[in-house]
Amino acid sequence: MVFGHATFAETTDLPRPLVDADFHNIDAMQASLGQKLFYDKILSGNQNISCGTCHHHRFGGSDGLSLGIGEGGVGVGPTRLPGFGDNRIKKRVPRNASALWNIGAKEVRVLFQDGRLSVSDDYENGFNSPAEEWLPNGLDTILAAQAILPMTAQFEMAGNPKENEVAGAAHDRIDAVWPIIAKRVRIIPEYGQLFVDAFDDVETADQVDITHIAKALGAFIGQEWRSHDSPFDAFISGDKTALNASQKRGLDLFYGKANCASCHSGSLLSDHKFYALALPPFGPGRTRRFDPYVRDVGRMGESDDLADAYRFKTPQLRNVALTGPYGHNGAYASLENMVRHHLNPLQMLDEWQPEMAQLPTAEWLQAIDFVVMSDKREMARQRSHLDITPIDLNDREIDDLVAFLHSLTGATALRLPLGVPDTVPSGLPVDK
């Protein structure tokens, strides 16, 4: 007589399934309007880049690069070029373009890898953000609040000083940008009518302001990148045949020996906290104004707390197989190498090579692309800040963990409801 053996996955407390009530309500007309705005370059200073350029459907809501090529670049995805002549980029975007999956969940109260946007009443406008007290009132969700911040960033969407009125306004005061953007949008007749149709408080196009644009963008992001129909979701909903044998072993490791769930916990597979992983540093870093080093201090840049040095936010993991490269700066192109780094951070840091970064060549930036790695004191500081303990797994166990991570890919993740629009009301080209 053969007796069955229950696996850890069958006996442990797995997260509960996500349901519609876990997410902010979305207005369908606002989401449809937001789709057009998301891919419309009119929101950028030089009208040459959209939100969708760096958070594209074809690349899982990201761009397939380690560090983004923002304003001034040409193309989309891993083949995006850093531009030419006077229009070429002046700096790489300091961090990897974060994916957008499920950030419309109500429990998400902190966004960006350093947490510089959070739900808070510190400034009496609902959020603690880089705009501080100048963030517009009336933004209904953190999704809406985050949507308008890249428009003010020089190397992301605004452009360089003296190039356009948006960039000039951004260097005056952050909130001077948004009225310019709002006017650009509302004077286009098609957009004007769409806002009147989508918003109860807009009777005429001249009433459209940045909060309406923000809410439409937030509605689109919240609807489009909602995803909880993966094999893993089916498994935790009761279908024990949804995962294959390797994925079940990987799940056992994830919630057991590998200790992944100590940070990637809950229904969103993130505790929304910050950890130092000693990832290989490169690029310009998100330096502070008074920071003399080319480096990225992570959460400390927002909190000014030395205890937060080199800590970055725990990412949510649904559809993670679609969103490489991985890490706050995209240090690893493969999930396997990212897993291996978690298991032995300092060894992987020592073995990492610059050619592993997915960085389109920009000769004029090469002098600083990897300069931080030659700074022995800075590297020693980064090595000394580490929040994870090495764990010994064999190659088969690592393969099983990666197989489990692939089980987090949603059935509809590659055929999302609205997709990329064929055209946008401004008439500007859409990145396909």
What structural class should be given to the helix and strand makeup?
mainly alpha
- Amount of helix: 25-40%
Radius of gyration: 22 Å
Number of strands: 5
Number of helices: 17
Low-confidence residue ranges? 1-5
Q: How does this model look, in words?
A:
The structure is a single chain. This protein has 432 residues and is mostly helical. Helix content is 31%, strand content 3%. The chain contains 17 helices and 5 strands. It has helices at residues 8-11, 28-38, 51-54, 142-147, 154-158, 165-170, 177-186, 189-198, 210-224, 231-236, 245-254, 300-303, 335-343, 345-351, 366-369, 376-384, 395-406; strands at residues 110-111, 117-119, 127-128, 274-276, 311-313. It has a 3-stranded antiparallel beta sheet. The longest helix is centred in the middle third of the chain and has 15 residues, at 210-224. The protein is globular, with a radius of gyration of 22 Å.
At a glance:
With 432 residues, the protein is mostly helical.
Question: Topology, pairings included?
Answer:
Blueprint: H1 8-11, H2 28-38, H3 51-54, E1 110-111, E2 117-119, E3 127-128, H4 142-147, H5 154-158, H6 165-170, H7 177-186, H8 189-198, H9 210-224, H10 231-236, H11 245-254, E4 274-276, H12 300-303, E5 311-313, H13 335-343, H14 345-351, H15 366-369, H16 376-384, H17 395-406
Antiparallel strand pairs: 1-2, 2-3, 4-5
List keywords for this structure.
17 helices, disordered N terminus, globular, two-stranded antiparallel sheet, 432 residues, 3-stranded antiparallel beta sheet, mainly alpha
